[in-house]
Amino acid sequence: MINRFYSNPSAGSKLEWAAINVVLAIGYCVRSIAGDDIALRFDDSKITNCINNVREQMDDILSRKDEIYGVQVLLGLAILHQGNVDQETPSTWVSTALRLAHRVAQQRTNVFWIAYFLDKDSSLRLSIPSFQLDSDVDLDLPTEGEIQSLDGLSRFNYFRARVLLAHIAGKIYDELYSNRSRKLSAEARQQRIFSLNRILDQWYRSIPTPLQAEHLTQTLGKVPGSLMIALHRSYLFCLVMLHGVYSLESPWVQKLGGFAIMVLQHSDKNSDVCMKGFAPPLPSAWVKLVTTSRSSLRLYLSELNGIGMIWPDARSNFTAFVILWANIIYHPQHDFVEHDRRLIRDAISLTDKQLNYDGLEKYKQLQCVLAGLERLADVTTNYAKENEGYRLASDINLQIDGSHPALQFEGSAAENIDPIFVSSQRPNTKGSVD
Protein backbone atom coordinates (compact mmCIF):
# COMPACT_ATOMS: atom_id res chain seq x y z
CA MET A 1 0.00 0.00 0.00
CA ILE A 2 2.85 2.39 0.83
CA ASN A 3 4.55 1.82 -2.52
CA ARG A 4 1.28 2.26 -4.38
CA PHE A 5 0.38 5.42 -2.48
CA TYR A 6 3.74 7.16 -2.91
CA SER A 7 4.10 6.15 -6.56
CA ASN A 8 0.83 7.97 -7.32
CA PRO A 9 -0.26 10.10 -4.33
CA SER A 10 -3.11 11.77 -6.20
CA ALA A 11 -4.80 8.39 -6.67
CA GLY A 12 -4.54 7.42 -3.01
CA SER A 13 -7.41 7.89 -0.59
CA LYS A 14 -7.36 9.91 2.62
CA LEU A 15 -8.07 6.70 4.51
CA GLU A 16 -4.97 5.05 3.06
CA TRP A 17 -2.94 8.13 4.03
CA ALA A 18 -4.27 7.85 7.60
CA ALA A 19 -3.47 4.12 7.72
CA ILE A 20 0.10 4.73 6.53
CA ASN A 21 0.63 7.37 9.22
CA VAL A 22 -0.71 5.10 11.97
CA VAL A 23 1.67 2.33 10.92
CA LEU A 24 4.59 4.77 10.77
CA ALA A 25 3.76 6.17 14.23
CA ILE A 26 3.58 2.71 15.77
CA GLY A 27 6.81 1.79 13.98
CA TYR A 28 8.57 4.82 15.47
CA CYS A 29 7.25 3.79 18.90
CA VAL A 30 8.64 0.27 18.54
CA ARG A 31 11.99 1.66 17.37
CA SER A 32 12.05 4.02 20.35
CA ILE A 33 11.31 1.15 22.74
CA ALA A 34 14.23 -0.82 21.34
CA GLY A 35 16.51 2.23 21.24
CA ASP A 36 17.79 4.75 23.75
CA ASP A 37 16.80 8.21 25.03
CA ILE A 38 18.32 9.91 21.99
CA ALA A 39 16.26 7.76 19.62
CA LEU A 40 13.17 8.46 21.70
CA ARG A 41 13.62 12.24 21.47
CA PHE A 42 14.39 11.98 17.76
CA ASP A 43 11.27 9.92 17.02
CA ASP A 44 8.92 11.77 19.36
CA SER A 45 8.28 14.65 16.96
CA LYS A 46 7.79 12.20 14.09
CA ILE A 47 5.18 10.30 16.10
CA THR A 48 3.37 13.55 16.87
CA ASN A 49 3.38 14.57 13.20
CA CYS A 50 1.99 11.20 12.14
CA ILE A 51 -0.79 11.37 14.72
CA ASN A 52 -1.70 14.89 13.60
CA ASN A 53 -1.85 13.68 10.00
CA VAL A 54 -4.27 10.93 11.02
CA ARG A 55 -6.52 13.21 13.05
CA GLU A 56 -6.83 15.58 10.11
CA GLN A 57 -8.50 12.74 8.19
CA MET A 58 -10.94 11.77 10.96
CA ASP A 59 -14.07 12.80 9.04
CA ASP A 60 -13.09 10.58 6.13
CA ILE A 61 -12.21 7.71 8.47
CA LEU A 62 -15.62 7.77 10.12
CA SER A 63 -17.50 8.11 6.84
CA ARG A 64 -15.89 5.05 5.20
CA LYS A 65 -17.96 2.40 6.96
CA ASP A 66 -17.23 -0.42 4.54
CA GLU A 67 -13.44 -0.68 4.85
CA ILE A 68 -11.29 -2.51 7.36
CA TYR A 69 -8.74 0.33 7.26
CA GLY A 70 -11.10 2.57 9.22
CA VAL A 71 -11.27 0.07 12.09
CA GLN A 72 -7.51 -0.40 12.10
CA VAL A 73 -6.80 3.33 12.04
CA LEU A 74 -9.13 4.01 14.99
CA LEU A 75 -7.57 1.21 17.03
CA GLY A 76 -4.08 2.40 16.12
CA LEU A 77 -4.95 5.89 17.35
CA ALA A 78 -6.30 4.47 20.62
CA ILE A 79 -3.10 2.48 21.16
CA LEU A 80 -0.95 5.54 20.44
CA HIS A 81 -2.89 7.51 23.08
CA GLN A 82 -2.65 4.89 25.84
CA GLY A 83 -0.32 7.06 27.87
CA ASN A 84 -2.64 10.08 27.86
CA VAL A 85 -4.23 11.13 31.13
CA ASP A 86 -7.49 11.76 29.28
CA GLN A 87 -8.72 8.36 28.12
CA GLU A 88 -12.26 9.37 27.16
CA THR A 89 -11.44 10.26 23.55
CA PRO A 90 -9.53 7.00 22.89
CA SER A 91 -12.45 5.15 24.46
CA THR A 92 -14.77 6.77 21.92
CA TRP A 93 -12.48 5.66 19.08
CA VAL A 94 -12.51 2.09 20.40
CA SER A 95 -16.31 1.91 20.66
CA THR A 96 -16.61 3.35 17.15
CA ALA A 97 -14.09 0.79 15.88
CA LEU A 98 -16.10 -2.03 17.46
CA ARG A 99 -19.27 -0.75 15.83
CA LEU A 100 -17.53 -0.72 12.45
CA ALA A 101 -15.94 -4.12 13.12
CA HIS A 102 -19.36 -5.67 13.48
CA ARG A 103 -20.19 -4.34 10.01
CA VAL A 104 -17.06 -5.11 8.04
CA ALA A 105 -14.46 -6.97 10.06
CA GLN A 106 -16.09 -9.64 12.17
CA GLN A 107 -14.09 -12.24 10.26
CA ARG A 108 -10.84 -10.40 11.08
CA THR A 109 -10.50 -11.87 14.54
CA ASN A 110 -7.20 -10.21 15.50
CA VAL A 111 -8.65 -6.78 14.79
CA PHE A 112 -11.72 -7.62 16.83
CA TRP A 113 -9.74 -8.89 19.83
CA ILE A 114 -7.56 -5.77 19.92
CA ALA A 115 -10.73 -3.68 20.01
CA TYR A 116 -12.14 -6.01 22.67
CA PHE A 117 -9.31 -5.65 25.17
CA LEU A 118 -9.06 -1.89 24.67
CA ASP A 119 -12.82 -1.62 25.24
CA LYS A 120 -12.76 -3.64 28.48
CA ASP A 121 -9.74 -1.70 29.78
CA SER A 122 -11.49 1.61 29.14
CA SER A 123 -14.64 0.36 30.83
CA LEU A 124 -12.89 -0.34 34.13
CA ARG A 125 -10.60 2.71 34.03
CA LEU A 126 -13.39 5.16 33.18
CA SER A 127 -16.17 3.41 35.11
CA ILE A 128 -18.42 3.15 32.06
CA PRO A 129 -20.15 0.10 30.55
CA SER A 130 -18.13 -1.62 27.84
CA PHE A 131 -19.49 -1.42 24.32
CA GLN A 132 -18.93 -5.11 23.56
CA LEU A 133 -21.15 -7.60 25.41
CA ASP A 134 -19.48 -10.94 26.08
CA SER A 135 -22.73 -12.70 25.27
CA ASP A 136 -22.41 -11.42 21.68
CA VAL A 137 -18.91 -12.83 21.18
CA ASP A 138 -18.67 -16.01 19.12
CA LEU A 139 -15.08 -16.03 17.88
CA ASP A 140 -12.09 -18.25 18.51
CA LEU A 141 -9.60 -16.83 20.98
CA PRO A 142 -6.42 -15.60 19.27
CA THR A 143 -3.75 -18.19 18.52
CA GLU A 144 -1.10 -15.74 17.26
CA GLY A 145 0.96 -13.33 19.33
CA GLU A 146 3.38 -15.66 21.09
CA ILE A 147 6.32 -14.35 23.13
CA GLN A 148 9.45 -16.44 23.60
CA SER A 149 12.17 -16.09 26.23
CA LEU A 150 15.75 -15.35 25.18
CA ASP A 151 16.82 -18.95 25.83
CA GLY A 152 13.89 -20.32 23.82
CA LEU A 153 12.67 -22.49 26.70
CA SER A 154 9.57 -20.48 27.65
CA ARG A 155 6.73 -19.59 25.32
CA PHE A 156 3.63 -17.59 26.15
CA ASN A 157 0.66 -16.49 24.06
CA TYR A 158 0.70 -12.83 25.02
CA PHE A 159 -2.23 -11.82 22.82
CA ARG A 160 -4.53 -14.50 24.23
CA ALA A 161 -3.51 -13.64 27.80
CA ARG A 162 -4.18 -9.96 27.11
CA VAL A 163 -7.69 -10.79 25.89
CA LEU A 164 -8.39 -13.02 28.90
CA LEU A 165 -7.20 -10.36 31.34
CA ALA A 166 -9.48 -7.85 29.62
CA HIS A 167 -12.34 -10.32 30.02
CA ILE A 168 -11.63 -10.43 33.76
CA ALA A 169 -11.41 -6.62 33.90
CA GLY A 170 -14.84 -6.49 32.29
CA LYS A 171 -16.18 -8.87 34.92
CA ILE A 172 -14.72 -6.72 37.71
CA TYR A 173 -16.55 -3.70 36.33
CA ASP A 174 -19.84 -5.55 35.75
CA GLU A 175 -19.92 -7.24 39.15
CA LEU A 176 -18.43 -4.53 41.39
CA TYR A 177 -18.67 -1.09 39.73
CA SER A 178 -21.73 -1.09 37.45
CA ASN A 179 -24.87 0.74 38.55
CA ARG A 180 -26.67 -2.47 39.46
CA SER A 181 -23.74 -3.69 41.57
CA ARG A 182 -23.83 -0.59 43.80
CA LYS A 183 -26.85 -2.01 45.60
CA LEU A 184 -24.99 -5.12 46.73
CA SER A 185 -24.82 -5.97 50.41
CA ALA A 186 -21.36 -6.07 51.98
CA GLU A 187 -21.53 -9.86 52.18
CA ALA A 188 -22.56 -10.29 48.54
CA ARG A 189 -19.82 -7.90 47.40
CA GLN A 190 -17.21 -9.82 49.40
CA GLN A 191 -18.36 -13.10 47.87
CA ARG A 192 -18.00 -11.65 44.39
CA ILE A 193 -14.53 -10.34 45.23
CA PHE A 194 -13.51 -13.78 46.45
CA SER A 195 -14.77 -15.48 43.29
CA LEU A 196 -13.18 -12.93 40.94
CA ASN A 197 -9.93 -13.20 42.87
CA ARG A 198 -9.84 -16.94 42.15
CA ILE A 199 -10.21 -16.25 38.44
CA LEU A 200 -7.51 -13.56 38.46
CA ASP A 201 -5.12 -15.84 40.38
CA GLN A 202 -5.72 -18.60 37.87
CA TRP A 203 -4.99 -16.22 35.02
CA TYR A 204 -1.70 -15.15 36.62
CA ARG A 205 -0.61 -18.76 37.16
CA SER A 206 -0.89 -19.30 33.39
CA ILE A 207 2.20 -17.08 32.90
CA PRO A 208 5.39 -19.20 32.80
CA THR A 209 7.61 -18.52 35.81
CA PRO A 210 10.50 -17.09 33.72
CA LEU A 211 8.09 -14.51 32.28
CA GLN A 212 6.66 -13.38 35.60
CA ALA A 213 7.54 -9.91 36.81
CA GLU A 214 10.53 -10.75 39.00
CA HIS A 215 12.38 -12.51 36.14
CA LEU A 216 11.58 -10.39 33.09
CA THR A 217 14.80 -8.38 33.01
CA GLN A 218 16.81 -11.60 32.61
CA THR A 219 14.53 -13.51 30.24
CA LEU A 220 13.22 -11.12 27.56
CA GLY A 221 14.47 -8.58 25.08
CA LYS A 222 13.31 -4.98 25.17
CA VAL A 223 10.30 -5.07 22.83
CA PRO A 224 8.65 -8.28 24.14
CA GLY A 225 9.74 -7.26 27.63
CA SER A 226 7.94 -3.94 27.28
CA LEU A 227 4.77 -5.76 26.22
CA MET A 228 4.98 -8.02 29.28
CA ILE A 229 5.54 -5.00 31.52
CA ALA A 230 2.33 -3.49 30.15
CA LEU A 231 0.55 -6.79 30.86
CA HIS A 232 1.80 -6.90 34.46
CA ARG A 233 0.77 -3.25 34.87
CA SER A 234 -2.76 -4.12 33.76
CA TYR A 235 -2.76 -7.03 36.20
CA LEU A 236 -1.85 -4.66 39.05
CA PHE A 237 -4.69 -2.35 38.05
CA CYS A 238 -7.15 -5.27 38.17
CA LEU A 239 -5.86 -6.25 41.62
CA VAL A 240 -6.29 -2.71 42.92
CA MET A 241 -9.82 -2.37 41.54
CA LEU A 242 -10.75 -5.74 43.03
CA HIS A 243 -9.45 -5.41 46.56
CA GLY A 244 -10.55 -2.10 48.09
CA VAL A 245 -7.16 -0.46 48.50
CA TYR A 246 -8.81 2.96 48.91
CA SER A 247 -11.55 1.86 51.31
CA LEU A 248 -12.49 4.51 53.88
CA GLU A 249 -12.16 1.75 56.48
CA SER A 250 -8.47 1.29 55.65
CA PRO A 251 -6.33 2.56 58.53
CA TRP A 252 -3.90 4.37 56.23
CA VAL A 253 -6.80 6.35 54.71
CA GLN A 254 -8.22 7.25 58.12
CA LYS A 255 -4.84 8.53 59.30
CA LEU A 256 -4.34 10.84 56.29
CA GLY A 257 -6.70 13.57 57.42
CA GLY A 258 -9.61 15.43 55.87
CA PHE A 259 -7.98 17.24 52.96
CA ALA A 260 -6.14 14.21 51.60
CA ILE A 261 -9.28 12.09 51.88
CA MET A 262 -11.24 14.76 50.01
CA VAL A 263 -8.62 14.72 47.23
CA LEU A 264 -8.95 10.95 46.91
CA GLN A 265 -12.74 11.15 46.87
CA HIS A 266 -12.68 13.57 43.91
CA SER A 267 -9.80 12.00 42.00
CA ASP A 268 -11.71 9.48 39.93
CA LYS A 269 -15.15 8.41 38.73
CA ASN A 270 -14.72 5.17 40.65
CA SER A 271 -13.72 6.90 43.89
CA ASP A 272 -17.14 6.78 45.53
CA VAL A 273 -17.46 3.02 45.06
CA CYS A 274 -13.77 2.35 45.82
CA MET A 275 -13.85 4.24 49.10
CA LYS A 276 -17.38 3.62 50.40
CA GLY A 277 -18.40 0.33 48.83
CA PHE A 278 -15.39 -1.83 49.68
CA ALA A 279 -13.93 -3.26 52.86
CA PRO A 280 -10.13 -3.04 53.23
CA PRO A 281 -8.08 -5.79 51.55
CA LEU A 282 -7.78 -9.10 53.37
CA PRO A 283 -4.21 -9.87 54.56
CA SER A 284 -3.57 -12.40 51.78
CA ALA A 285 -4.69 -9.85 49.18
CA TRP A 286 -2.57 -7.13 50.78
CA VAL A 287 0.57 -9.25 50.49
CA LYS A 288 -0.20 -9.79 46.81
CA LEU A 289 -0.77 -6.06 46.26
CA VAL A 290 2.53 -5.18 47.94
CA THR A 291 4.65 -7.70 46.03
CA THR A 292 3.00 -6.78 42.71
CA SER A 293 3.47 -3.04 43.34
CA ARG A 294 7.11 -3.57 44.22
CA SER A 295 7.70 -5.63 41.07
CA SER A 296 5.84 -3.07 38.97
CA LEU A 297 8.05 -0.19 40.14
CA ARG A 298 11.22 -2.23 39.69
CA LEU A 299 10.21 -2.92 36.11
CA TYR A 300 9.28 0.72 35.60
CA LEU A 301 12.82 1.74 36.58
CA SER A 302 14.51 -1.03 34.61
CA GLU A 303 16.19 -0.66 31.23
CA LEU A 304 13.61 -3.11 29.88
CA ASN A 305 10.81 -0.57 30.28
CA GLY A 306 10.90 1.11 26.90
CA ILE A 307 7.11 1.31 26.80
CA GLY A 308 7.04 3.40 29.98
CA MET A 309 9.21 6.02 28.31
CA ILE A 310 6.58 6.46 25.58
CA TRP A 311 3.38 5.83 27.55
CA PRO A 312 4.08 6.56 31.25
CA ASP A 313 1.25 5.16 33.35
CA ALA A 314 0.98 7.74 36.13
CA ARG A 315 -2.14 6.13 37.56
CA SER A 316 -0.60 2.68 38.09
CA ASN A 317 2.55 4.24 39.49
CA PHE A 318 0.57 6.38 41.93
CA THR A 319 -1.28 3.35 43.27
CA ALA A 320 1.98 1.42 43.65
CA PHE A 321 3.44 4.37 45.61
CA VAL A 322 0.38 4.42 47.88
CA ILE A 323 0.51 0.68 48.56
CA LEU A 324 4.22 0.61 49.41
CA TRP A 325 4.00 3.68 51.67
CA ALA A 326 0.94 2.22 53.41
CA ASN A 327 2.77 -1.08 53.88
CA ILE A 328 5.63 0.73 55.63
CA ILE A 329 3.06 2.41 57.89
CA TYR A 330 1.50 -0.97 58.69
CA HIS A 331 4.82 -2.81 59.06
CA PRO A 332 7.56 -0.24 59.79
CA GLN A 333 10.18 -2.92 60.48
CA HIS A 334 9.68 -5.23 57.51
CA ASP A 335 12.76 -6.33 55.59
CA PHE A 336 12.17 -4.10 52.55
CA VAL A 337 11.51 -0.76 54.27
CA GLU A 338 14.64 1.03 53.04
CA HIS A 339 14.52 -0.71 49.68
CA ASP A 340 10.92 0.42 49.16
CA ARG A 341 11.71 3.99 50.23
CA ARG A 342 14.41 4.25 47.57
CA LEU A 343 12.22 2.51 45.01
CA ILE A 344 9.34 4.95 45.55
CA ARG A 345 11.54 8.05 45.45
CA ASP A 346 13.41 6.93 42.32
CA ALA A 347 10.14 6.08 40.55
CA ILE A 348 8.55 9.41 41.55
CA SER A 349 11.60 11.24 40.21
CA LEU A 350 11.36 9.41 36.88
CA THR A 351 7.59 9.98 36.65
CA ASP A 352 8.09 13.71 37.24
CA LYS A 353 10.59 13.83 34.37
CA GLN A 354 8.30 11.95 31.98
CA LEU A 355 4.92 13.47 32.77
CA ASN A 356 4.02 17.03 31.90
CA TYR A 357 1.91 18.19 34.86
CA ASP A 358 0.78 21.42 33.19
CA GLY A 359 -2.99 21.61 33.53
CA LEU A 360 -3.13 18.40 35.56
CA GLU A 361 -4.28 19.89 38.86
CA LYS A 362 -5.73 16.53 39.89
CA TYR A 363 -2.31 14.89 39.79
CA LYS A 364 -0.72 17.81 41.59
CA GLN A 365 -3.29 17.37 44.36
CA LEU A 366 -2.61 13.64 44.53
CA GLN A 367 1.01 14.46 45.30
CA CYS A 368 -0.17 15.81 48.66
CA VAL A 369 -1.55 12.34 49.42
CA LEU A 370 1.87 10.83 48.76
CA ALA A 371 3.52 13.52 50.90
CA GLY A 372 1.13 12.74 53.75
CA LEU A 373 1.84 9.02 53.48
CA GLU A 374 5.59 9.63 53.46
CA ARG A 375 5.31 11.69 56.65
CA LEU A 376 3.25 8.95 58.30
CA ALA A 377 5.81 6.37 57.21
CA ASP A 378 8.63 8.46 58.71
CA VAL A 379 6.78 8.81 62.01
CA THR A 380 5.96 5.12 62.32
CA THR A 381 9.43 3.89 61.36
CA ASN A 382 11.11 6.30 63.80
CA TYR A 383 8.72 5.26 66.56
CA ALA A 384 9.34 1.60 65.76
CA LYS A 385 13.10 2.08 66.07
CA GLU A 386 12.68 3.72 69.47
CA ASN A 387 10.20 1.10 70.67
CA GLU A 388 11.63 -2.28 69.75
CA GLY A 389 9.08 -4.78 68.53
CA TYR A 390 6.42 -2.15 67.83
CA ARG A 391 4.27 -2.84 64.79
CA LEU A 392 1.42 -0.59 63.77
CA ALA A 393 -0.29 -3.56 62.16
CA SER A 394 -0.98 -5.08 65.58
CA ASP A 395 -2.92 -1.97 66.59
CA ILE A 396 -5.14 -1.51 63.56
CA ASN A 397 -7.10 -4.76 63.49
CA LEU A 398 -6.69 -5.77 59.87
CA GLN A 399 -9.41 -8.12 58.73
CA ILE A 400 -8.78 -11.79 59.31
CA ASP A 401 -8.69 -13.72 56.08
CA GLY A 402 -11.45 -16.30 56.02
CA SER A 403 -13.15 -18.60 53.60
CA HIS A 404 -16.09 -17.32 51.62
CA PRO A 405 -18.32 -19.52 49.46
CA ALA A 406 -17.93 -18.48 45.83
CA LEU A 407 -21.06 -16.81 44.57
CA GLN A 408 -22.16 -18.53 41.38
CA PHE A 409 -23.19 -15.62 39.21
CA GLU A 410 -23.15 -16.05 35.46
CA GLY A 411 -19.72 -16.27 33.86
CA SER A 412 -17.65 -15.38 36.93
CA ALA A 413 -17.21 -18.60 38.88
CA ALA A 414 -13.62 -19.81 38.64
CA GLU A 415 -14.64 -23.14 37.15
CA ASN A 416 -16.29 -21.31 34.23
CA ILE A 417 -12.96 -20.03 33.01
CA ASP A 418 -11.05 -23.32 33.39
CA PRO A 419 -11.68 -24.47 29.79
CA ILE A 420 -10.13 -21.25 28.48
CA PHE A 421 -6.87 -21.85 30.33
CA VAL A 422 -6.79 -25.49 29.33
CA SER A 423 -7.25 -24.51 25.69
CA SER A 424 -4.60 -21.79 25.99
CA GLN A 425 -1.99 -24.53 26.07
CA ARG A 426 -3.33 -25.95 22.79
CA PRO A 427 -3.38 -23.20 20.13
CA ASN A 428 -5.70 -25.08 17.78
CA THR A 429 -8.41 -25.61 20.38
CA LYS A 430 -11.41 -23.34 20.05
CA GLY A 431 -12.39 -21.14 22.95
CA SER A 432 -14.73 -18.37 23.94
CA VAL A 433 -14.65 -15.63 26.52
CA ASP A 434 -18.16 -16.38 27.68
TrEMBL record:
GO molecular function, one term: DNA-binding transcription factor activity
Localization per Swiss-Prot or TrEMBL: Nucleus
Keywords recorded for this protein, A-Z: DNA-binding, Nucleus, Transcription, Transcription regulation
Lineage top rank: taxon: Eukaryota
Signal peptide residue numbers: none
Stretches assigned to the Xylanolytic transcriptional activator regulatory domain: 90-148
GO cellular-component term (any): nucleus
Any one biological process term the GO annotation gives: DNA-templated transcription
The protein's name: Putative fungal specific transcription factor domain-containing protein
